[in-house]
Specification:
By secondary structure, this protein is mainly alpha-helical. It has two domains: 38-177, Alpha Horseshoe (Serine Threonine Protein Phosphatase 5, Tetratricopeptide repeat), CATH 1.25.40; 190-330, no CATH class. It is 64% helix and 3% strand. The protein contains 18 helices and four strands. The strands form two sheets. A two-stranded parallel sheet has the order 1-2. Strand 3 (333-335) and strand 4 (342-344) form a beta hairpin. It is globular, with a radius of gyration of 23 Å.
Length: 345
C-alpha cells in the first residue's frame, strides 16, 4: 500500500511538472539567448579592439572611469580586461611600451600579475614578487581604491596577519568607504576558508550592509557570507542561528534586487548569487523570480566554483527551479465563469 501511494505521488508530481513547466517559462529568455558575463556597451568595444591587438579603447575606458571617479565601474571593467589579457596580452604589452607610467596600464599589469601568481603552485612566493607592481599602481593615482582591493587580495594570498590586513583595509576605505570590490576582498580574507570564521564573516558583512548607501551592492555582502557557508559543504556546521542569518541575508538581497530593473546587467552577479542561495534553501518560487529578473545575464560567479561549465550549470539550475515550482502547483486549473480568470484546484 505504501509503495502504491509513493508511486501515485510520483505520478502526480510528474503530471504537474508536465502541465505547468511551460507556463512557468514566461519571462525567461530561451537557453540560446542567455550569455555568460556579457560585456556592456562601454566595455564591448574595448574587448573587440583588444582582440585586434589595439589598446587605445581600453585605455580610454579606464581613463574615463578614473577621471570621473567611477570606482565600481573601473574595478568591474578592469576584471574583464584582465580576464581577456590572461590569454591574449599583446595589446597590454604595446600599451605599457607606449605609456609605461600610465596609471591605467599599471593597474591592468598589476591585476594580471596577481591573477597569474594565484594560479601558481608557489602562490605565496609568486605573490610576494608582484607586490612592487601593486605599489606602483597605487602610487600612480592616490585617489584610486582599486589597487587597494588588489592589495587586500594579495594579503590573503601571502597569509598576511590581521594587523597588516587592517592597515590595508584602512587605506582602501579612506579612498572609497563603500567600494564593493574592496568589501568583497575583505570578506574573503575574513571567511572560514582563510583567516576568519563563518560568524566573523557574517558579522563583517551585516555591519557593512547596515552602513551602506541605498541600493549599494554592499548590501549583498551578507548573501556572499551565506554562499561561503553553504559552499563549505559538510565541513561547515550549520546551526539554527546561522540558518536564520542565511535567510535574513537572502531577504536583504531580494530587497536590493527589487531596486533594479529586470534584466539590468549591473546587479546580475548579485542576482545569480541570490538565486543560488535561494535554491540551496529550497525557496523555489523566489529563486524563479530572480531568474526572471536576471534575464539573459548569467555570470561565472557563483556557478564556476561548483561546475566547469558555469553557463550550463546556470541553465540546469534554472530548469530545476522551474520544475520544482511546477511540481508544487495544483494539478487542475479551473476557469471562472467569465473565462478570463481562473484558479487552481
Amino acid at each position: 500500500m505504501i509503495c502504491t501511494m509513493s508511486f501515485l505521488r510520483a505520478l502526480l508530481r510528474t503530471a504537474r511538472m508536465i502541465r505547468h513547466a511551460p507556463q512557468l517559462s514566461a519571462g525567461l529568455p530561451a537557453d540560446d539567448e542567455v550569455l555568460l558575463d556579457a560585456p556592456d556597451e562601454r566595455l564591448s568595444p574595448a574587448l573587440v579592439a583588444a582582440a585586434l591587438g589595439e589598446y587605445e579603447p581600453a585605455a580610454k575606458l579606464l581613463a574615463t572611469t578614473r577621471d570621473a571617479a567611477e570606482w565600481e565601474n573601473r574595478d568591474r571593467y578592469l576584471g574583464r580586461l584582465v580576464t581577456f589579457a590572461r590569454h591574449r596580452d599583446s595589446w597590454l604589452t604595446d600599451w605599457l611600451a607606449a605609456a609605461p607610467h600610465d596609471p591605467d596600464a599599471l593597474l591592468v599589469k598589476a591585476e594580471l600579475a596577481v591573477r597569474r601568481a594565484w594560479e601558481s603552485p608557489a602562490r605565496a612566493e609568486q605573490l610576494r614578487g608582484v607586490a612592487p607592481q601593486i605599489t606602483a599602481a597605487a602610487e600612480s593615482d592616490p585617489r584610486d581604491p582599486v589597487p587597494w582591493r588588489l592589495a587586500l587580495d594579495h594579503a590573503r594570498g601571502t597569509h598576511a596577519p590581521h594587523t597588516a590586513f587592517e592597515a590595508l583595509w584602512e587605506q582602501a576605505v579612506r579612498r572609497s568607504s563603500h567600494h564593493y570590490g574592496c568589501h568583497v576582498a575583505a570578506l574573503q580574507y575574513l571567511s572560514a576558508a582563510w583567516f576568519g570564521s563563518h560568524r566573523e564573516c557574517f558579522d563583517f558583512a551585516e555591519q557593512a550592509a547596515e552602513d551602506s548607501l541605498p541600493s549599494s551592492l554592499v548590501q549583498a555582502l551578507p548573501v556572499r557570507a551565506a554562499f561561503a557557508l553553504l559552499s563549505a559543504g559538510s565541513e561547515a556546521r550549520t546551526t539554527s542561528m546561522l540558518e536564520e542569518r542565511i535567510d535574513r541575508a537572502a531577504d536583504l538581497a531580494i530587497a536590493l534586487s527589487a531596486t533594479y530593473e529586470p534584466g539590468d546587467p549591473w546587479p546580475a552577479e548579485v542576482r545569480n548569487l541570490l538565486a543560488y542561495v535561494l535554491i540551496v534553501r529550497g525557496r523555489w518560487e523566489e529563486a524563479l523570480e530572480q531568474f526572471r529578473l536576471i534575464g539573459p545575464h548569467a555570470t561565472s560567479f557563483p556557478w564556476s566554483p561548483v561546475s566547469d561549465d558555469p553557463l550550463g550549470q546556470f541553465l540546469d539550475a534554472r530548469d530545476g527551479v522551474r520544475l520544482q515550482v511546477a511540481s508544487g502547483m495544483p494539478l487542475r486549473y479551473r476557469a471562472d465563469h467569465g473565462g478570463s480568470r481562473g484558479h487552481y484546484a
